UniProtKB/TrEMBL annotation, chain A:
Residues 1-20 form the signal peptide. This is Outer membrane protein beta-barrel domain-containing protein. Keywords: Signal. The keyword Signal applies. The keyword Signal applies. It comes from the Bacteria.
Automatic annotation (TrEMBL), chain B:
It comes from Emticicia aquatica. The lineage of its organism: Bacteria, Pseudomonadati, Bacteroidota, Cytophagia, Cytophagales. PROSITE patterns: PROKAR_LIPOPROTEIN. It comes from the Bacteria. This is LVIVD repeat-containing protein.
């Protein structure tokens, strides 16, 4: 009795991995793995109040705020790892690194890539993509007394996929990227300055170049 | 290919439509000043006697006989009956817009009312009457790091109220750091603490005792006041009706006035003026000498000056007590320096020296020998800013949390008599 039990357990231990291996192989034959690695820029502008603000505490007359505009160009890197659900659609996880000046965010998103239009085989493809996720601050370093937190990120893009003969492809994508973050200063012991919290909504145009294989 | 372009164009248009503008808002909380403008009539008619009130932001302290006058900065004066120091009685609140300083002679209280000096009959502290007024004496004033100014043409006074402000501004998304607003106005980096100090100002019993931070002092029949730049002399022979007598320009940055023997010590930012006051009607300048730091309290006893220096907004001076021989006023010599923790106000009831160590408490020293001052007692766990030793082994001490009274008959073991608490919002 005891022997049969041991045999049964041994049998299960042996059969399952091989079975799992087969399932895995089957699955990846049906749904090939895909990696899309891209780098690019985040373009935008920023409109903010200037120094005039500081004199409000002094002049008895009201002071209209004055704004200043600055262009922003930042660097972004991302890698999408996923599988093709069918010939046209791939889903996966997108891991990125975005630098917004001194702030470096590491967004993790769920991503979808879909070939929208392809006129004939091996010609260029119009590719649509969408990433939705949350930015972490794993690689960010804060100034003393400040804390950066990430927030949601939404990034729809559209672009071309230019297939190569070996099955890989070049990519160029254009789109929009919304990223939320906050930069909070902890309460200080300074008698004249207590705390501040900057809520950031980055709204950028994104241009990315990459490769799919 | 042409067809493929259309979606791209659409994507660009979409981006322009939602606009690729970073939108960052900073909500910040800080202490600053908010300007308020009064017209002169409001100021002059704003005086009244009211029911007793709690201390909120006490300023200078003045003691006269059994009465204790505590300035509520720019709001009025709290009057306490202190005949029983164990149980000071809050009698009334005299509302005076812009009051910073006060001095009492007999039954007359002199106080500033922004630009004017007003005399009050305080024989009945519950119904104080205005008896005289000298108009347009001051044009600017500075207290607690905040200055006010008078616009003679518009006949308005612009003052500033310290407030904690929370507001939201559109900021630039961390591209430059969010700078604290230290310079929003005249707010110096100064702790919001009461000021009072002992002085040898009283002559006899007719006048009271103020502090070395005082800008008002009474000597003989004259009330001396210092504005930012001048020494102003008022004749108070008729107590109820002060008359402006003379004005001596001293240059900018005058801070305090305190009399010692027949001399007047006037402290300024840059140094100390010593006036010979033998003829009180016409003080004469004897000398000027460089003061270690103008904003540090100094007391003088038996030709020995005790000066506390501390680190902080006054500059990067070491925390210490300097004992200086001032028998020759033109060349003071240092006797010895003692290390301290964070000394502020000090007072002497010879041979006992009391030094406030701010957050470190109150210390009592034996100063019999200037070259060997020894610690007798250290009262910890309270905030001590300034002291006034009174006759009869009685000590008044002010800190952030209130006004404490001590029995000092045993300087090694001060006995707390009472506390008048300060009610602060934050």
């Amino acid at each position: 009795m005891k022997k049969t039990q041991i045999l049964l357990v041994w049998g299960i231990l042996n059969v399952f991995p091989s079975f799992a291996q087969e399932v895995k192989q089957d699955f990846f034959q049906k749904h090939p793995f895909v990696n899309i690695t891209e780098f690019g820029t985040l373009l935008g502008r920023s409109k903010y109040e200037t120094y005039n603000y500081y004199y409000r505490g002094y002049y008895p007359q009201p002071i209209e705020p004055q704004y200043q505009i600055q262009n922003r160009v930042n660097f972004a890197l991302q890698t999408f790892n996923g599988i093709y659900l069918n010939k046209k659609t791939a889903v996966g996880l997108t891991l990125g690194i975005d630098s917004y000046g001194p702030t470096v965010l590491t967004p993790i998103s769920a991503g979808i890539r879909r070939n929208l239009i392809q006129k004939k085989k091996s010609s260029s493809i119009l590719l649509g993509s969408l990433d939705v996720g949350y930015a972490t601050t794993w690689v960010n370093e804060d100034n003393t007394g400040y804390k950066t937190s990430g927030g949601i990120v939404i990034c729809p893009t559209i672009g071309y996929k230019l297939p190569m003969r070996n099955g890989s492809a070049w990519l160029i994508n254009f789109g929009y990227r919304y990223q939320r973050a906050s930069y909070k200063q902890e309460r200080t012991s300074d008698p004249y300055w207590y705390e501040s919290n900057e809520v950031r909504n980055y709204r950028r145009m994104v241009i990315r170049f990459g490769i799919e294989f | 290919m042409k067809k493929l372009l259309h979606p791209l164009v659409l994507a660009f248009l979409a981006c322009i439509h939602v606009s690729c503008n970073d939108d960052c808002e900073t909500t910040r909380t800080y202490r600053t000043t908010v300007p308020i403008t009064f017209n002169i009539e409001q100021i002059r008619s704003g005086i009244s006697t009211e029911a007793p009130q709690d201390l909120v932001n006490p300023g200078k302290i003045y003691v006269k006989d059994n009465y204790l006058f505590i300035n509520e900065i720019k709001k009025g004066i709290h009057i306490f009956d202190n005949s029983n120091p164990e149980k000071p009685l809050n009698i009334s609140f005299l509302k005076i817009p812009g009051v910073i300083d006060m001095a009492v002679k007999e039954n007359t209280l002199y106080a500033d009312n922004y630009i004017d000096i007003v005399a009050f009959d305080i024989s009945n502290p519950k119904a104080i009457k205005e008896t005289g007024r000298v108009k347009d004496v001051f044009t600017t004033g500075l207290v607690d790091g905040v200055s006010w100014w008078y616009d003679a043409q518009a006949k308005t006074v612009t003052d500033y109220e310290i407030k904690v402000v929370t507001e939201t501004v559109r900021s630039n998304c961390g591209q430059s750091s969010i700078t604290p607003i230290y310079y929003a106005n005249d707010v110096a980096l100064k702790a919001n603490t009461p000021t009072a100090n002992q002085s040898s100002g009283g002559n006899g019993t007719t006048t009271g005792t103020g502090g070395s931070m005082a800008r008002f002092t009474i000597y003989d029949d004259y009330l001396y006041t210092v504005s930012q730049s001048d020494l102003l002399l008022f004749n108070i022979k008729t107590l109820s009706n002060p008359l402006q007598q003379s004005k001596i320009n001293l240059g900018w940055g005058i801070e305090t006035i305190f009399p010692y023997k027949d001399k007047l010590f006037i402290g300024s930012n840059t140094g100390m003026y010593i006036f010979d006051n033998k003829n009180p009607e016409k003080p004469e300048r004897l000398s000027t000498f460089q003061h270690a730091r103008a904003c540090d309290p100094v007391i003088v006893h038996n030709d020995i000056a005790y000066v506390t220096l501390r680190s902080g907004w006054c500059g990067v001076t070491p925390n210490r007590l300097d004992v200086v021989n001032v028998s020759n006023l033109s060349s003071p010599t240092l006797i010895k320096s003692y290390d301290m923790q964070n000394p502020a106000g000090l007072g002497i009831d010879f041979p006992n020296l009391f030094i406030c160590e701010s957050q470190y408490g109150l210390k009592s020293f034996d100063a019999t020998s200037a070259s060997n001052i020894s610690l007798q007692q250290h009262i910890e766990k309270l905030d001590a800013y300034d002291v006034i030793p009174l006759e009869g082994k009685h000590l008044l001490m002010v800190g952030k949390d209130g006004l404490y009274q001590y029995d000092t008959s045993n300087p090694k073991n001060l006995k707390q008599l009472s506390v008048i608490p300060v009610k602060r919002d934050n």
